[in-house]
Amino acid sequence: MTGPRAAGQPRPVNGQRGFSVVEVLLSVGILTLLGLAAAGVIGGLSRAAQGGYASARGANDVDRELAALRDEAATAFAVFVPGGAAAEVDFYSKTDAGRDVFWRYTFDASAHTLRRSDYDPGGPSGVRDPVTGAIDARATYPPLQAASFSARVLEANELGSSRNRYGPVSGALIGSGARALPVSFDNGQARLPDLYGGNVIVQIELRGAGPARTLHLLSGALPTGFTFHALPVAHGVVYRIDQTHRFWFGLAQVSHSWIDGHVDVSYDRWRTRTAWCDFNIYGGAHGIDPHGPQANYNPDDYNESFAGLLAQTQADPACGPSPPGPAAPNRTAPFTPPPPIVDSPPPCFTSPPPGEAPCWPPSAPPDWTPSPLPSFTPPRIWCLTHPRSGACRNGF
Amino acid sequence: MIRECERGFTLLETLAAVTITGIAVLGVAGAVAASLYGSARSETKLLLADDASNVLTDLRAASAYDPAMLASMDGRRVSARLALPGSGGPRIVEVTAGVARQAPAGEYLATVTATAADGTSVTQRVTLAAEAPAPGSRVP
After folding, report:
1. In the structure, what pLDDT confidence band is assigned to residue B31 with cuts at 50, 70 and 90?
2. Where exactly are the structural domains of chain A?
3. Order of all β-strands in the sheet with A148-154
4. pLDDT, tens digit, 9 for 90 and up, residues A118-149
5. Which of A2, A12, A38, A93 has the greatest number of beta carbons closer than 10 A?
6. Chain A 374-393, residues with CB within 8 Å of chain B CB atoms
């Protein structure tokens, strides 16, 4: 359909005429349909992408939280669930200064959040000052949005049971011979019935924006090494060998450690207890080894994880004046003793002042310098809090 | 007379333009879909890594104090289909785990492979060793 042409307007040649109304309407309709379809597709993809992004972001948050839990378990002496409370998982460790450190992750089912908090048993909960150790009850850690959370304890002898999500695999490999070996603590403060390490596993199930995640936590400092504490005289910690591959004794040097005092440990949740008595460990460049009367002693016979066990050879209450040390293994070839140990105990170890046995008391003023100055340098951690001490001026 | 620069698009030009636009839209859609698939796949891999890691943690807990336990696992290889918590329903995972003796003596290599229903799999390995005598035991 075409309208009347104006007079004098040139007649369009064939192929050059404009579109008719019908053609225009038809094409507009088709384009509109195509546009709507394209918009629908793009909108759907956009929504899916946004959902995917949100899910990924939530999954990342959960992933970070799980990574934090895993790392914290690796440095904790114990991961435990107090009172069987499924909505909480707790950690226990100890600072180099000998201070107990507790922290936990608590799930709030009404707010759908999982939040970390530091606490002292029976005391406040909040955020701990890393220097003073005081808890700020007004401070909080940022929460993680979580749809659900649960924690349950799995003893090593339960790993094949239906309580373990992975029981059909772990149980088939382990069999029925796995033993639960709990390790409890007692330093006068942290003696809680549910607080024990060893080879116990805490199974965490956490659901954030994405699918549920399952995590098995194993305390890192205890199961494969040895940990013991004593207050107020000394404490020592042997971290897991495959993690740090060295000793860290809080009050000793790399090459000499003095474990002094009465240390109680339990391997059966306090049904029985073991007492640990005084002993010395000396070492040289090859590592720590006992400097005892063993004529046939070879440091290679005792790896680092044995050092703690040397103390155990003295059972309560018959702690003698000198440690017996380990029995020398049977060896056909004579052993050449290691080079003489040049280190000697610092004065404060050989004659500790009354009530102040540690060489490097954590409560000392920042500029405190022992006199006479020991030939041993203090632990780095001590120098961080005592930067003006004369013992810390040589790069420590 | 309509000048050359004022004439409309020809049908061929229009079809070419529509085709090019369509290809571009399809390309964008494909990229978005690939991204979504990749995201889902990486999430699956995360979950599978959790699964493998958890089984290895179990093995370490059971054997860290116990050389006899390690020796008893030597050469064993087990496989099980697990229904684990997922997004909506259970997440089916095939988990295969094995332990084999390796040098030096006293060390064992544990290998765990977790495979999702879509064939995505993750393998993790760790060396197991009786890293310390059992708590409470005496030095011989």
Report:
1. confident
2. 61-218, 224-339, 359-396
3. A148-154, A201-207, A212-218
4. 998 888 999 999 888 899 999 999 999 999 99
5. A93
6. none
